[in-house]
Amino acid sequence: MSIENKVVVITGASSGIGAATAKLLASKGAKVVLGARREDRLQELSQTIGDNAVYQVTDVTDRAQVKALIDLAVSKFGRVDVLYNNAGTMPQGNLSDREYDKWQMMLNVNIMGVLNGIGEVLPIMQKQQDGLIITTDSVAGHVVYPASAVYNGTKYAVRAIMEGLRQEEKNHGIRSTIVSPGAVRTELVNTIGNTQIQAGISELMNADDSKGLALNPEDIANAVLFAIDQPKHVAISEVLVRPAQQEV
């Protein structure tokens, strides 16, 4: 699938991996449809990209808003070639902290947000008999570690959902890709509620590139581009991208 003139819907597009991916794909000729909650960031990003970008304020936990984002892509550009489910949250903490509201938020954003995107775009891609659905997962979907049980659980769930999607839709011309980053310098760190955990991860993120401890959003954007820029008979089922020195 050549990226030029492809219509790519991106959630979580206002910063970090989503914004970096939007800029990279647009620079290669894609038309990007940007969704996130922060309108000021979306407007700024859309203006930076230019005519090949449109945006819609989108909370992925609200199915009607996700539908509006997909509908915008179709009304503006006539189709959806790629959906990139990228929105996520990571309020780390121990199970003994009993942070029920944060647990529910993670389930809503990290799992239902992905399902809302899949559910709304599938009828369009089935009609097209063509499409690619990409979802940001995590190394945390492969390895469980302390103070991350619920986040790990959401990311393991995403892997299961995406594999089910692959099996169900492969005969309809629809491919699926999981992009699983390790440590990346993004604002996701700011969603960590436990201050001790946040401080430790922030220190890791602030290390310079030569130490190989954290990736930049552009590194993940390149992985997304790689998955998209494949011929139709090739499906990149998963890309696992770690900093060179990451242990887990």
From TrEMBL:
Keywords: Oxidoreductase. Pfam families: adh_short (PF00106). Gene3D superfamilies: NAD(P)-binding Rossmann-like Domain. The keyword Ion transport does not apply. InterPro entries: NAD(P)-bd_dom_sf, Sc_DH/Rdtase_CS, SDR_fam. Belongs to the short-chain dehydrogenases/reductases (SDR) family. The lineage of its organism: Bacteria, Bacillati, Bacillota, Bacilli, Lactobacillales. One of its GO terms (molecular function) is oxidoreductase activity, acting on the CH-OH group of donors, NAD or NADP as acceptor. This is Short-chain dehydrogenase oxidoreductase. It comes from Lactiplantibacillus pentosus DSM 20314.
